């Protein structure tokens, strides 16, 4: 059998050009291609929160020439919340490697008299209507971060979903909405004093803002809601192909220049190998299934 690869590799990115997944893959792709000795061609197939492009790869030939750079939505959140997703996120894919994570920050308008998570929770409980927060659409990791915080703390928080998240940022900066949960992209407004950070919804503090404590540090056990990005092939990919692709991903993430570029874009290199990735995906689906049942959220 000829050693893989012997021709260019298509990597399906199931989100639009310019998305975090797309940008990350365009940083990693040239370095992976250098290791593998063949070009990597990115094929953007956006739609349905990553489901459209993921389904293409699930049904692709098992030869290693069609791979997927997926995200938390397509392989963690939506499989837990969509009753009719057209693939099994575990059984229909070969895990290659976790690439990066990206988390969410809880921020407030400076007019809100709170400076930490316990003060925020107490403030929300003291309001007759509770407290509303801006975040992405229903099922987004930042929207769900607020749902988890409500579950764990009892704080009466109401998600205002924004399909156009830029409008959500604008509304929070203007004080129309007093709280927002969003990615590291919100930090420039914090540095300018236009917003105040309360917590990060990650397991550990983030390199882009090491002074911001986690929600868990502040007593909100289990309030972890990260985005993540991982490479898969169709089920049944040969072990040698899987391992070579995984090695190329690992080498790219270990390159200091590439790692710095990713960090500057709000991403944290977080390589996991194939077996660890399979367990990680299973745990993520389990977590979001529990949240979905607890809050009664199902997505059509």
Strand content: 15-25%
Please name the CATH architecture of the largest domain: 3-Layer(aba) Sandwich
Calculate the mean pLDDT score and round it: 93
Trace the largest sheet across and list its strands.
2-1-3-10-4-11
Number of domains: 2
Distance between the termini: 44 Å
Number of E-type strands:
11
How many individual helices?
A: 10
- The level of helicity is 25-40%
Helix and strand sequence: EHEHEHEEHEHEHEHEEHHEH
Q: In the CATH hierarchy, what is the superfamily of the largest domain? A: Bordetella uptake gene, domain 1
**Cα-atom radius of gyration:** 20 Å
| Helix/strand/pairing category | alpha/beta
Question: Which regions have little confidence, pLDDT < 50, spanning 5+ residues?
Answer: none
CATH topology of the largest domain: D-Maltodextrin-Binding Protein, domain 2
